[in-house]
Design brief:
With 1040 residues, the protein is mainly β. It contains one helix and 76 strands. The strands form 19 sheets. Strands 15, 16, 17, 18 and 19 form a five-stranded antiparallel sheet that branches. Strands 40, 41, 42, 43 and 44 form a five-stranded antiparallel sheet that branches. A hairpin with a 3-residue loop joins strand 53 and strand 54. The two termini are 33 Å apart.
C-alpha cells in the first residue's frame, strides 16, 4: 500500500496569543439600564439641568444634561459623564449652582462592596466643563457604610452635603460638608459630625434656609415614638467646620413636633422673603395623633421656634376625615407655602394640596381639607411640585386612570389668584403606551414649567421632557421629547451557529421591549468585532423574528439561509392564556438576516390548533436537525390534552414546506414526562434522539427514528438497565455512534457520572449497566463531553464535590477503542481547578490543533467582605500530550465586577494559518439595585501550519485488531483520512462474504467497530476494510 504521510505540527505552548479582544470581554449585548432618580435643578433662565446613571460603558456611571425651552440639548446629544471611575456609581443628586451649572453627588462603590459605599461629588460649569476629573471629588471615603446622602444649594453659589455614617454603633451619626462657590470643601473625604445623639434620624429632608445656611427635618425616635426634629447649620470655611445652630452636635437637633402618636414623612423648605425677613423655613409631616393619618405643617423662625402661636405642635391641614392623608411634600416662596399629599377619601389615591400663608389669623387659603388637584379614577401617585416664580404653583404626578398596564404623566397649575388654570384633573403630559412614571417639575425662570419623567413606551427606559408655557400649551413634541434612551431588560439563553469560515451568529432571548414580550436578537461576529468597546457596541442587534413571544429558539444554517424554530408563548402573544405554547419557525437570509415569509414566523401546526399546541411549562424543549436534502427535523416536547409531554417531530423544508399531516409522536407515553435532550443524524437519514423520561423515576432513554419519523423496532429504550435515577447531561457523535453521559444515583449518598457508547443502530458497546466515569464519594454532576477524533477518545468534565466543601472541576478521558476510563485509582484524569469557591458550569471544545479547550464559571475571587456572589470566567487548555497549557487552576477570561456565568465556547473563524474561538457568557457586571443580564464574549486564536513528514497516514490504515484470538467479540480500530464511504466486511477462508459490519459514509478520523461472532464456529476469518482508494485485509482467529 502506498504510504504517503503527513505530519501536523501542533504549535502548542508557543503560539498562543493573548486573548484577542479587550480585557474583560467585548459586549455582545450591553444595555444602558437607565436609573432615573428624578433629580433636577435650574440652570440659567429658560434652562433645566438633570442627572441620571446608566451602564452604557458596562459599569454604572453618572451623567448630566442641560436643555432649554426649545428642547435643545446643551451638553451633547447623550449628555456628559460626571464620573467614569472604576466600579459602580449611582443615585445622583443635583442642585443648581446659580451660575448656569450644577453640583452633583452620588453613592460610589469603587473602594468598597455595594453593601457599603462612599460619597463623591462633581461640579459642572455652565458650559458643561468639569471642575474636577472624571474620578470625581471624594466627599467621604471611609471604611464602612456611608449612605443616604442629601444636598441643597446655599444661595451663594455653593452647596451643603449631608450623609449618615453607619459605622459608629447602634445609631447612625449624621455628617456634613460644604462646597463653596470657588469649590473649596470643608474636610474633604471625612466631613464634620453634626448629629451624634442616640437616636435614629430617618428620612432627612435638607433645604436651603437663607442667610447662607441650610435647614433639616427628620423623623426621630429618641422619645420612644416618632417625632419630627430639625436642625440648622452654617458653614465656617475659615475654621474648616460646620456649626449647628438649633442645638449642639451631641443634643442632635430641636423638636419641631413631639405630639402624641407618631409623626412621619418630614419635609422642609425655604420660604424666601416670607414675613419680611430672611431665613424663614417651613416643615410638613404626616401625623396620627388623632388615630388617623392627617397632614400638619409649621412655619419656623430662624431660631427654630414655631411660628403659629395657636398651633405650637403644627397647623392641621386636614382634620376630621375618616380616610388617610399621607406622604406630604412642600415648596414655598414669598407668596406662601404649598403642600401636596395623597388622600384615599375617594377610595383611590388622589392628589390634594393646600396653600398656607404665614398668618396667625387666616393661614389656610384653599378648601378645607385641601384642594382636589386630581380625583380621576384609579390611583394618582408620585406627586411633585414647584413654585412658578410668579405666585403660583405647578403639580405633576403619575396617573393610572387609563387602566391596564398603563401609567401616564399629568400636570396642573394653580395661579397666584388661586385658580386651576388647566383642565379638571390635570393636563396630560404623556399618555403614550406602557409606563410613564416618576415625574419631576421645575419652573424655567419665566413662570413656566419643565416636566421630566422616566418613560417606557419603547419597552426599555428613557428620559423624556416637556415644556409648558404661560398659556397652558405644551411646546415640545406631543407626548414629550426623548432626551436619552437606553436598552434594559434581561437577556439570556445565548447560543451560537457557525455561518462560514469567518463568522458566527450569536443569538439570545431578549426582553428589551418590556417584560411582557420576548424577542430573539442576533449578531454576526467576526475577528475584529471586539478589538475596541466602541466597535463592539456599534454593531447593531438584528431581530430574528418580529413575533413578540419567542421562547427556546434554535437556529440552524441550511444552505444560504438560517432556519429558526421557536415556541410562541400564546399568553404573552395575546392569543389565548389557556393555549400554552405553539411551534413556530422563521426563515432568514444570509448574510443580511432579512426575514423571509411572515415576519411573525410560520405556525407549524395550522391544521390541528389545540391538540398539539399545549407545551408543558416544565418541558419547553426544542431541537433541530438538518438533513442532507435541506430539510430539518423539528423536535419538541409537547403535551396533548394536558397529559405528560411526549416527544414529537415534524419535518420542515428550508423553503417553508411542512411535511407530514401531523407531528409524529416518538414516545407515546402520556403517563410520563418526556423531554428531548440531544438529537443526531444517523447514516440512513433518520435521527438518534436522547431524552429523559420522568415518571415514577427519572430514566435516560434513546430512540432511533427513520426518515419518516417512525421509531425503529425495539425503540425507545433505556440507556442503562440499572434501576436508579439517570439524568441525561450531554451526548456527542463520535463517528461510529453516539456517546451519552448521565448523572446517576445508583450509589447511596451522592450522584455519579456514567456513560455509554451506542452505535447508530442503538446497540450499547459497553457494559449494559453503563461505563463508570466518576464513581466515588459525594456528588459528581453537571457534566459535559467532547470528542477527540485523532486520539479516538472523549473528554468528560464535571463539577466534583469530593472535597465536601466546594465544587471543583474534574475531567477524565474514555478510550473509544476499549471503552476504558483513563483515571488514577478511580479518580479523575485531570483536576482542572480546585480550592476556594466553586468551579461550575463547564463547557469543552476540541480545537483544530488537537488541544482540549475548557471554560467554566469560578467563584475563587468571592470573599466574605463582598457579602454577595462574585463569579468569573476561567479557562484552560490540555494539549495532545495531556499537559496543561496554562497555570494550574487556569487563567481568567473575565473577572469583572459581580457575576459572569454560563460560559460556552465554539469556533467562529478558520483559515489555513489561524483558528479563532469565541467564549461567550451571561454577564451581570452592570448590576446595581436590580440584577441586570447582558452578554459578553472573548476571542482566543491558535496558529498552526502543515508540513509533509512520515508520521500520519493519508490513506485508510488499520491500527489494531484486538483481542486476537478472540471469543466472541473483536474490536477493529482504523484511521480514515477523509470523509468517504467505507465498508467493513467479514469473509471466511473460501472468500465468501459472511457478514457486512458497516457500509456507509464515514467521517475522517480514528474509528473503532466491533464484530460479534457468537453465531459462527471457531476458525480463521478475514476482516476487510474497503474505501474508494484502499483495501486492507487482516486475519483473525475465533477460538470458542
Amino acid at each position: 500500500m502506498v504510504s504517503r504521510l503527513i505530519f501536523i505540527i501542533l504549535l502548542l505552548n508557543t503560539v498562543f496569543s493573548q486573548f484577542d479582544w479587550i480585557d474583560g470581554g467585548a459586549p455582545i449585548r450591553q444595555g444602558q439600564h437607565i436609573e432615573w432618580q428624578r433629580t433636577a435643578g435650574s440652570g440659567d433662565t429658560g434652562e433645566i439641568i438633570f442627572a441620571w446613571s446608566d451602564t452604557r460603558d458596562s459599569m454604572r456611571d453618572v451623567y448630566v444634561q442641560k436643555i432649554d425651552t426649545q428642547g435643545n440639548k446643551l451638553w451633547g446629544e447623550k449628555g456628559i459623564a460626571v464620573t467614569t471611575a472604576y466600579g459602580r456609581q449611582e443615585d445622583p443628586l443635583l442642585v443648581g449652582d446659580d451660575n448656569g451649572g450644577a453640583f452633583i453627588i452620588w453613592i460610589d462603590y469603587r473602594n468598597e462592596p455595594d453593601t457599603k459605599g462612599d460619597v463623591y461629588a462633581q461640579h459642572v460649569l455652565s458650559d458643561g466643563s468639569l471642575v474636577w476629573s472624571l474620578e470625581g471629588q471624594p466627599i467621604v471615603v471611609k471604611e464602612g457604610s456611608q449612605r443616604n446622602p442629601n444636598m441643597c444649594k446655599d444661595g451663594n453659589g455653593g452647596a451643603y452635603i449631608i450623609w449618615k455614617d453607619f459605622t459608629v454603633g447602634q445609631y447612625e451619626h449624621v455628617y456634613a460638608t460644604h462646597i463653596s462657590a470657588d469649590d473649596q470643601i470643608i474636610k474633604p473625604g471625612e466631613g464634620v459630625p453634626i448629629m451624634t445623639n442616640d437616636s435614629h434620624h430617618n428620612g432627612i429632608s435638607l433645604e436651603i434656609a437663607g442667610l447662607g445656611e441650610a435647614a433639616m427635618a427628620w423623623v426621630d425616635d429618641r422619645n420612644g415614638n416618632l417625632d419630627i426634629f430639625g436642625q440648622r447649620m452654617l458653614a465656617d470655611h475659615e475654621n474648616d467646620t460646620i456649626n449647628t445652630l438649633w442645638s449642639t452636635v451631641e443634643e442632635g437637633g430641636k423638636a419641631i413636633c413631639d405630639a402624641e402618636g407618631d409623626q412621619n414623612y418630614a419635609k422642609i423648605t425655604y420660604a424666601s422673603g416670607c414675613c419680611g425677613t430672611e431665613g424663614i423655613t417651613v416643615a410638613t409631616w404626616q401625623d396620627d395623633r388623632n388615630q388617623n393619618f392627617d397632614i400638619y405643617m409649621q412655619y419656623l423662625w430662624v431660631n427654630g421656634d414655631s411660628f403659629f402661636q395657636s398651633y405650637p405642635q403644627g397647623l392641621p391641614l386636614t382634620d376630621g376625615l375618616t380616610s388617610s392623608q399621607t406622604k406630604p411634600r412642600l415648596k414655598a416662596d414669598d407668596s406662601g407655602a404649598y403642600v401636596v399629599w395623597y388622600s384615599d377619601q375617594n377610595g383611590n389615591s388622589d392628589i390634594y394640596a393646600q396653600k398656607i400663608l404665614a398668618s396667625q389669623d387666616d393661614p389656610i387659603q384653599w378648601s378645607e381639607n385641601g384642594l382636589a388637584v386630581c380625583t380621576a379614577q384609579d390611583a394618582q401617585t408620585g406627586a411633585r411640585l414647584s413654585v412658578s416664580g410668579n405666585g403660583g404653583v405647578y403639580f405633576t404626578w403619575q396617573d393610572d386612570r387609563n387602566g391596564g398596564d398603563e401609567a401616564d404623566v399629568y400636570i396642573q397649575h394653580v395661579s397666584s389668584d388661586n385658580i386651576l388654570t388647566l383642565p379638571d384633573n390635570g393636563l396630560v403630559i404623556s399618555d403614550e403606551s406602557l409606563i410613564q412614571k416618576s415625574p419631576v417639575v421645575r419652573n424655567d425662570g419665566n413662570g413656566n414649567a419643565f416636566v421630566l419623567w422616566e418613560d417606557g413606551r419603547r419597552g426599555s427606559g428613557a428620559i423624556f421632557t416637556q415644556h409648558l408655557n404661560s398659556n397652558g400649551l405644551l411646546t415640545l413634541s406631543e407626548n414629550g421629547m426623548e432626551i436619552y434612551y437606553g436598552v434594559d431588560g434581561k437577556s439570556d439563553n445565548i447560543k451560537s451557529e457557525k455561518i462560514n469560515d469567518t463568522d458566527v451568529l450569536l443569538y439570545w432571548e431578549d426582553r428589551e421591549n418590556g417584560v411582557n414580550s420576548t424577542y430573539n436578537f442576533g449578531k454576526i461576529i467576526s475577528n475584529d468585532y471586539g478589538y475596541t468597546y466602541e466597535n463592539a457596541i456599534s454593531v447593531p442587534n438584528a431581530s430574528l423574528s418580529e413575533n413578540p413571544a419567542q421562547l427556546n429558539a434554535e437556529v440552524k444554517k441550511v444552505g444560504n439561509n438560517l432556519f429558526m424554530g421557536f415556541l410562541q408563548d400564546n399568553f404573552q402573544a395575546g392569543v389565548d392564556p389557556f393555549e400554552g405554547y405553539s411551534q413556530y419557525f422563521q426563515i432568514l437570509d444570509l448574510p443580511d438576516l432579512n426575514l423571509a415569509g411572515d415576519v411573525n414566523g410560520t405556525w407549524l401546526n395550522p391544521t390541528d390548533f389545540f391538540q398539539y399546541d399545549f407545551i408543558s411549562e416544565f418541558g419547553r424543549d426544542l431541537d433541530l436537525l438538518v438533513n442532507d436534502d435541506n430539510t430539518l427535523f423539528y423536535f419538541t416536547s409537547l403535551s396533548e390534552f394536558f397529559a405528560g409531554p411526549d416527544i414529537y417531530v415534524r419535518k420542515v423544508g428550508i423553503d417553508g414546506q411542512i411535511y407530514w399531516d401531523a407531528p409524529k409522536n416518538l414516545t407515546n407515553d402520556p403517563a410520563s414526562d418526556n423531554f428531548v435532550r440531544n438529537v443526531f443524524n444517523t447514516p440512513d437519514g433518520g435521527a438518534f434522539v436522547v431524552f429523559d423520561k420522568i415518571g415514577s423515576g427519572n430514566y435516560g432513554n434513546i430512540t432511533i427514528m427513520n426518515q419518516e419519523g417512525e421509531n425503529l423496532e425495539g425503540f425507545p429504550k433505556r440507556v442503562c438497565d440499572i434501576d436508579s435515577n439517570q439524568f441525561i447531561e450531554d451526548a456527542v457523535d463520535v463517528g461510529i455512534g453516539i456517546f451519552i453521559i448521565w448523572r446517576d444515583n445508583r450509589q447511596d449518598g451522592g450522584s455519579d457520572i456514567y456513560g455509554q457508547l451506542f452505535d447508530y443502530s442503538g446497540n450499547p458497546q459497553g457494559a449494559t449497566d453503563g461505563i463508570a466515569i466518576a464513581e466515588y464519594d459525594n456528588d459528581q454532576t453537571n457534566s459535559n463531553i467532547t470528542f477527540h477524533d485523532t486520539l479516538n477518545e472523549v473528554l468528560v468534565c464535571w463539577e466534583d464535590y469530593l472535597s465536601g466543601t466546594d465544587y471543583d472541576l474534574a475531567c477524565s478521558t474514555v478510550n473509544l477503542s476499549n471503552l476504558e476510563v483513563n483515571n488514577s485509582l478511580g479518580f479523575p484524569t485531570y483536576t482542572i481547578a480546585e480550592g476556594q469557591g466553586d468551579q461550575i458550569n463547564v463547557d469543552t471544545y476540541k480545537a483544530e490543533n488537537g488541544n482540549y479547550m475548557i471554560v467554566w464559571e469560578d467563584s475563587r475571587n468571592n470573599s466574605d467582605e463582598n457579602l454577595q456572589t462574585h463569579t468569573d470566567i476561567y479557562y484552560q487548555e490540555i494539549n495532545i500530550q495531556g499537559e496543561f497549557i496554562y497555570n494550574d487552576n487556569g487563567i481568567a477570561v473575565c473577572d469583572s465586577y459581580h457575576i459572569q456565568t454560563e460560559p460556552q465556547i465554539s469556533m467562529y473563524s478558520k483559515s489555513d494559518s489561524e483558528q479563532s474561538y469565541i467564549i461567550y457568557w451571561t454577564d451581570l457586571r452592570s448590576t446595581g439595585k436590580d440584577l441586570l443580564y447582558n452578554i459578553y464574549a472573548q476571542s482566543i486564536s491558535h496558529d498552526y501550519q502543515l508540513s509533509i513528514e512520515d508520521s500520519f497516514p493519508v490513506e485508510l490504515s488499520l491500527n489494531s485488531i484486538y483481542p486476537n484470538p478472540f471469543n466472541p467479540e473483536v474490536n477493529i480500530n482504523f484511521y480514515n483520512p477523509r470523509s468517504e464511504k467505507v465498508s467493513i466486511n467479514i469473509y471466511d477462508l473460501n472468500g465468501k462474504l459472511i457478514e457486512k459490519i458497516y457500509d456507509n459514509q464515514l467521517n475522517s478520523g480514528s474509528h473503532t467497530f466491533s464484530w460479534n461472532a457468537q453465531k459462527f464456529s471457531s476458525g480463521i476469518y478475514i476482516i476487510s476494510l474497503e474505501s474508494d482508494n484502499s483495501v486492507i485485509s487482516s486475519k483473525v482467529s475465533l477460538m470458542k
